[in-house]
Amino acid sequence: MYQFLREQSKKNANIKPVDFSQLFQGKTAYEVLQGVVQGYVNMNHQEKLLTFYKVIYSERSIQPMAARIVAEETERMIIATKQLFYAMVIHKLLHFENADMSAVSFAMASRQGRMKKVLYARQRLMFV
């Protein structure tokens, strides 16, 4: 179910396979990072996926399947961020002492920001 909802959300948010050369063309590193994070936020704020995340995040500490889904999504974020950072280094947009560690830090910080938005949306829905 998760895979289906995730793919539907990607489709609805118009997220397609990335061509880094095209993504980077005429943009600063900040603009690229901002756009990538915004695309991920847009994908995750599709109504059905957002509702699914609310359940998964509330159940992750007691349900092994929910914990696995959270771990898989985290791993996807880290891998995608590493690929992005490696491409940004190749295209000379950024330089890292340790691209892997920087990617993990960025992915987790972005995830934390997304979780705050999910929790905020959840609170709003509870009081409507």
Number of distinct beta strands: 0
Helix percentage: over 70%
Structural class: mainly alpha
The low-confidence runs, each spanning 5 or more residues with pLDDT under 50, are 118-128
Question: What gross morphology would you assign?
Answer: globular
End-to-end separation in angstroms reads: 27 Å
Salient structural properties:
disordered C terminus, 78% helix, 128 residues
Folded structure, characterized:
By secondary structure, this protein is mainly alpha-helical. Helix content is 78%, strand content 0%. The longest helix has 28 residues, at 99-126. The protein is globular and about 45 Å long. The model is unreliable at 118-128 (pLDDT under 50).
Mind sketching the topology for me?
Blueprint: H1 2-12, H2 20-24, H3 29-44, H4 47-59, H5 64-90, H6 99-126
Helix pairs in contact: 4-5, 5-6
Write a short abstract of this structure.
By secondary structure, the protein is mainly alpha-helical.
